[in-house]
Structures are given as C-alpha cells and as structure tokens.
Amino acid sequence: MGGDFFQIVPNAVDGSVLIVAGDVAGKGMQAGMLVALLVGAIRTVARFSSDPAVMLRELNMRLIGRGDAAATCLAMRIDADGTVTLANAGHLPPYRNGEPVAIEGALPLGMIETAECSRMRFQLEPDDRLVLISDGILEATDAEGKLFGFERIQELLHGRTSAAQLADAAQKFGQDDDISVIAVTRMAAPIPVPVPISTPVPA
C-alpha cells in the first residue's frame, strides 16, 4: 500500500480546479488506511469549500489524535483566469516552469491542532506549467548512494520533461519509494473568430 495520494476536483460551475497532493508517513497497511481516510475527507470537504487553507485545516483535524498519523500535503486551486491559490503543510513546493515556487515552510498535517499552513497566491500566464512531485522523486537513490536531487529535477523540468518521463527517470535512477508527479499547463484561451453574416439583397 502506498503513502502518496492526490485528488483533482474540477468545478463545473466556475471553471476552477482543486488539486490536493500529499504523502502519508510510514508504509504498509497503516499508511494505506490513512490514505483512504484522507482521500475520502478531501472529497467531503470539496463539497462545501474549494479554499485550499480550509481543506488543509479540515484534513489536519482528521489526523489529530490518531497516534503517529502525519502527512505532508499541498492544496492548490487554479481559477479559470489563471489565479493560483496555494496552501502547503510540509509538502515539496510545486515547480513553475522548472523553478520551485518560493513558499514558507510549515508543519505537516497531524502534528499540532492549531498549526497554520503556509499560503500564497500567484498568476499563471498562458503556457505556464506547474509540476507537483512527491519526495519519492527527490530521494531516489542510485547504487552508489547518490540522490536524484533538486538539481536533476530542475534540469529535467527546464527541458519540458513530461510527468511520465520524470517518474520514469527516477525509477531508472533507483527509486525505492512511492512516487507521484502531476503536471498542469495553462492553455491560452482561443480567440473568437467573427463569422461574417451575409444579408440577402432584394432582386
């Protein structure tokens, strides 16, 4: 059973998309049960709020009091106009066009009931790409004990490596943990083309 989880929840009413990604501490059956708990909670919370900070607060409350239950988690809403609202609780920041988004650190979920997530807002321009990764990519280790590392990730993302190609590169390097990669590109809105209307001329 894996410790990585993610959910992508589109909103048909306002055109926004909510993306929640995280990594539960531990492995095996306990980690799998926590993943199931969090995925169910994400779907429940998304029914009444798409605010990333609200999402993380509610997920944090689901883990409080469950012993050693903890998880890093990032929640991000992308509005139809490209506005990104981001909240993070100890997860790796997303990469924007190959560069990590600069956001303050914060405690993972399940540590403190009153913990505050880090928050920020920024604008995605047409053709901008966001990539979310789990630490299974970063911490992939080869036979000589070398880490895949931040520099290799940035080099690949600057080369417009796809999500599948990044995951494959980590696996071939020596990945021994759960991995997840999510890539989102904002597409330019199509420009309406005026359709000429012909008016019949009386004979």
Question: Can you offer a commentary on this structure?
Answer:
With 203 residues, the protein is an alpha+beta fold. It has a single domain (4-185), classed as PPM-type phosphatase domain (Phosphatase 2c, domain 1, 4-Layer Sandwich), CATH 3.60.40. The chain is 27% helix and 25% strand. It contains five helices and nine strands; from the N terminus they run E-E-H-H-E-E-E-E-E-E-H-H-H-E. It has helices at residues 28-45, 52-63, 135-138, 149-158, 163-173; strands at 4-10, 17-24, 71-78, 83-89, 95-96, 99-100, 118-123, 129-133, 181-185. The N and C termini lie far apart (78 Å).
Shape: globular
**Order of strands in the sheet with most strands:** 1-2-3-4-7
What's the CATH architecture name? 4-Layer Sandwich
The CATH top-level class label:
Alpha Beta
Strand content: 15-25%
Query: Given the structure, what is the number of helices?
Result: 5
CATH topology: Phosphatase 2c, domain 1
- The helix content, as a percent range, equals 25-40%
Tally of strands: 9
Question: Terminal Cα separation, in Å?
Answer: 78 Å
Descriptors:
27% helix; 9 strands; five-stranded antiparallel beta sheet; 5 helices; alpha+beta; four-stranded antiparallel beta sheet; Phosphatase 2c, domain 1; 203 residues; globular
